[in-house]
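Board notes (copied after class):
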Amino acid sequence: MSIGILPGPPDPTEPVLPPIKTRAGASVLRPKRGQRMAAHAAVPTHRAMLPFLRWLAFVLAGNVVAAAHVLASDSSVPSALTYTVTAASIDIGLAALVRQQYFVNALFRMATSVPLRWPLRVRSALAQVYQFSGGVHVGCALSAIGWFTAFTALTVGGVVTGPESGLKIAVLAVAAAILAVFVGIAVSARPTAREQRHDRYELTHRYGGWLCVMLFAALTVLIAARAGGSVVVALAASPGTWIVLAVAVCVGTPWLQLRHISVTVVTPSDHVALVTLDRGRRVRPGTASRIARRPLGEWHAFADMPSPDAHASRMAVSRGGDWTTEFITDKPESVWVRGVPTAGVVTVARLFNRVVWVATGSGIAPCLPQLLCSRTPARLVWVTRNPERTYGHELVKEILAAQPDPILYDTDALGQPDLAALAYRVCRETGAEAVICISNKKTTLRLVAQLRQRGMTAVGPIWDS
């Protein structure tokens, strides 16, 4: 395997990376070589998640304004109860909607369908579409907890100060149960908890979400019954009824599309499995599908790759935990597939005239669909240990046929490169408009932040789910 080498050494009179751009337009020169370790440690990796954080802040701010309006208005306790539970249900509905696969696909299709002649600044902003769903989802979930805390507190006050009734106590019990489940889901979804206990996070989100839908349906019925009069009429007039139905559709649709399909698994090495799925149709490149060994077990999403068979698709499963290790070792003959193929971060390549793909190790797997069949001109920078030994001669040959001029940086022979400097130099030499990085979390966030500090367009996953 030949290693791609950039033509010519860097210009010694020019910084390896351009100066960091500040908000005022001034520049900060890059630290000298002896200071680089400290500079790398100080890279503000949150810059890679700024759109996510901005959407999160926007949603929280909107809910705070709504809460201030409730506090400022001279409303009675019953109307405050109605306001808080309605606001909580709206936030829950939005949190479910922005994660729904059809909504995500529609959002990506709209964002990536703009003409390439549009200004780069606009297209770069649209390329952050993948952070929208995460920011809104988290913001709405946290807001729903706040609203429901207020609703539960008001309900407690009504039970303590008012005449007791069975309906009031039932409403309080259900509300307290919903709030407890919400808090449990939020605690397990914290970034550190999600990374360290991903199985618990997934199970808590799944079963906690189902339980919340059922409890919220029961709460809606109880509130309608407490209002007096016809329960059916009260349910039809309640926004919560229709929001619960919408959430149930969002949550249930992927499970109604559950399928058990046969697969063929080839393992070029003990590090990766190349899986061919007999789906009966092709899938759109740039999407990802969720597969599982058991319907109620762990689910994992992998990028869909084209297959020579028109009725099948492929995916690369890289070793990255207990589930993938078992999958590569056992080589199952069938898997479960849920929902529809869903667009992901790699889809934003369509927004640019030319891109640079930076992948390290098994990060090549999500890039493969775009590398093998995307119409966007690209240059691949793949930093890995002996690619042929890991992914097999046939797949590497297929990559080289689709990307005849890649940079295959063998870390066994050359050690670890300065990824930011390498990506910058390739962008400069190819005229690429953006860098798309797929690597581990630490490397991806650091590289994206380093390039954005210098006014470049860089995207990469943010591990928000």
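Comment from the instructor: The first strand starts at residue 20 and ends at 21. The chain is about 55% helix and 15% strand.
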